[in-house]
Amino acid sequence: xxxxxxxxxxxxxxxxxxxxxxxIVLLCLKYRHLYVTREKQRLAAKHxxxxxxxxxxxxxxxxxxxxAVPLGKRDLQVLEEKLIEIAERVKGKHREQLTALFEKLGxxxxxxxxxxxxxxxxxxxxxxxxxxxxxxKATPALxxxxxxxxDEAGRYIIARAIARCTRSVSDLRVMVEKMVESSPDSPRLLxxxxxxSPLDVLPLLREWINSGDSRLALxxxxxxxxxxxxxxxxxxLWKLLEAEEKEVRIQAVRLIVSGERVSADQINVLMASPxxxxxxxxxxxxxxxxxxxxxxVLQQAMDDQSWWVKYHAARSLxxxxxxxxxALCEVASRTPHKETADLxxxxxxxxxxxxxxAGQGMPGSNERDHKLTIYHSYFNRQKERAI
Amino acid sequence: xxxxLLGYGLxxxxxxxxxxxxxxxxxxxxxxxxxxxxxxARFSRFQSLAGSKRVPPVSILVPAxxxxxxxxxxxxxxxxxxxxxxxxxxxxxxxxxxxxxxxxREFGLKRQSHVSVRSVVPSSAPSGIYHNPQxxxxxxxxxxxxxxxxSLNAGINLSHYPLIASIDADSLLERDALIRLAQxxxxxxxETVAIGGNVRIAxxxxxxxxxxxxxxxxxxxxxxxxxxxxxxxxxxGRIGWSSINGLIIVSGAFGxxxxxxxxxxxxxxxxxxxxDMNIIIKLHKYMLENKKKYRIAFCPDAVxxxxxxxxxxxxxxQRKRWGRGNLKNMIEYRxxxxxxxxxxxGLLTMPYNVLFxxxxxxxxxxxxxxxxxxxxxxxTHAHIVLIFLAINLLYGYLLTIxxxxxxxxxxxxxxxxxxxxxxLGYGFLMFFGYYQLGAIWRVLGHIDFLRNNNTWGVMTRQSxxxxxxxx
Lengths: 387, 471
What we know:
The complex is a heterodimer. Chain A has 21 helices and no strands. Chain A has helices at 2-46, 48-57, 73-87, 92-105, 107-115, 121-133, 139-148, 152-165, 169-182, 187-195, 202-209, 214-223, 231-240, 246-256, 264-271, 276-289, 295-301, 307-318, 321-334, 338-358, 366-379. The longest helix of chain A has 45 residues, at 2-46. The radius of gyration of chain A is 31 Å and the shape is elongated. Chain B has a domain at 20-56 and 162-351: Alpha-Beta Complex (Spore Coat Polysaccharide Biosynthesis Protein SpsA, Chain A). In chain B, 53% of the residues lie in helices and 15% in strands. In chain B, helix 1 packs across helix 7 (221-243). In chain B, the strands form 2 sheets. In chain B, strands 3-4-5-2-1-6-11-8-12-7 form a 10-stranded mixed β-sheet, sandwiched between helices. A two-stranded antiparallel ribbon of chain B has the order 9-10. By secondary structure, chain B is of the alpha/beta class.
């Protein structure tokens, strides 16, 4: 009994001490934060005119001047925060102006010093700020902390900083390869990171698409803007349709159909794919192309095994004007499958409702009237499917 | 008899120490992991991600039962989210009030006479689906009352995107909440099957146009207690559990899921409350049994604001429901307990849940009574009761301080020094009545379960405008 009580008293003493320590830490944190916030507000007001000067002179050819007054440590912190806010919103020449100003103020060197700290939010903060400043000389230091960083969130922040700082495409290649090797697959986020680089990454993406490495190919495909697809790239994408990994095939077809219409033969090849995702993507793309020649293919797609292929085929058909609308009416009226009929009817009614809403208060639309006539010609005879 | 009472009382005392110590270890994991949270929250570029086509689209599911007072603000806040591509599916679960009609009126919805809905998970058939092409992202499903799980399943069947987010109809999402969850998902899309968001108490906050404009602590005592309780559970607990992949619950108020995984486990379980815990246990079980690498993550900077019950009657109903749901889940998945096949879930999370959540009130109450009985035999030993109470109080308060510290390190939502004082003061006050009531409600919830009472219980809402005016 006595031993138990001794243990209990000891426990109570330790708990009380920890509670008191916790409360002291909390109070210190709160008052320190309040003090820093007030100081920052005061200094932000003090430098308001200078920030206005920066904003109004970003377009000029002359480099931006540093403030005329001497700057303390806290002044620099506040200016850094304000200037980074601006740098995050601008690109090109404006960003270059700010990069030069950051260097004049000596901020990148300060942040480089902070990079040498132990891993944690402070070091990540420094990496983030160097990235926002686009300080090229920080690239090697950023690479070394990328190696040492253990958590995913931190790695992506450092990778983004490298992408923004480096002026060498080969650095980007190394960075992405390191990320792909040591992190879980995340092609979309890596493509986002690459998108933050001021460099032309197209040659790199082209290289990865042809690399035979599916992980790099996925990053490249996530990063490729549809507008940049030239013939050699499209050829490479077609080759990827034979890749072993389904995700590669899906992303390849997504890109192939994202631009101009592919030929009828190619559509037939794609619509014969064993992957329903591929067929659904093509069915959806046909709605964006709005080519009347595709209507029979879409009508056929309404008999597909996959609900998603039928869904996108129906949505594409109603986007093809009166002709597509009529084709869908035909499908809805003849199909023996309830699911297909419901899908078709749902899209037909949505289209009519949309036309009615769009045309409210406007003189009668011929297109809308024509669709309504078509609809009634099919379904007035079949009361069970009337609106 | 006297020795027996003392023995049991001492056992209960050590039980309190052990259980709180495990929770303290989880809190330490939370503190160790907080730097990752801070990094992601402060330095990821959510603004640019919110405009990117590379972000996967999401179907937001909003089950609604008698939510006429809050549903419009909720839907408006969802339609204003910073997210590139998403849809909002409100499921009216046979509401007895005007929930459906206020939605129809507000958004000019029209009933679709022909609807094609897949049936990938079991749910009752919709009696109508409403849509307006002017709000192409918004769908409303009307169906007979079948419970929250049934509603979520109906939403999954209609959904068009690969990710689903479940949101309570009485909650408001911060504009960047969803994109923050998406960032966590995109860091590891292959392995991430679910991500929980942080639920905060909105009582007392100033709310305009479905957005929390000014964060304030509640004025009323019950919501204030719940604010501290949520802080302790979400920051002190869930960050730590998720860091060891042992999260047992993603709050039904706000979570993101991979739809294919939810379908693979058969969707949400109907018939009992606690569907939010149930789906997570099923996901753990499915992934572990199929030897798939996975993670269930928690993202505390993705914030959802919710109305906390401000009357004892409603709070009791909620806590009894939670008690029922918890007990049902523990009984249903008892084969996972102490089973090494289920790794952290089987060896730590579930045993801890049984010991701390399910059995906690019994041990604490009976231990207290045993020591009271013991001291009645000999009043010179009455101090042992006080020691037992002091251990409960101080260890519990230490964990409260830990939760507030995490808030202060990472988020600092409550900025004034008086807020901190209030949190510390009320955090202490909670040990005098509130926690004891919670224990009693949990026991009553278990009794309800044994009596097969599966009703949802009372849950009345008030409009966000009223909430703001009152504060």
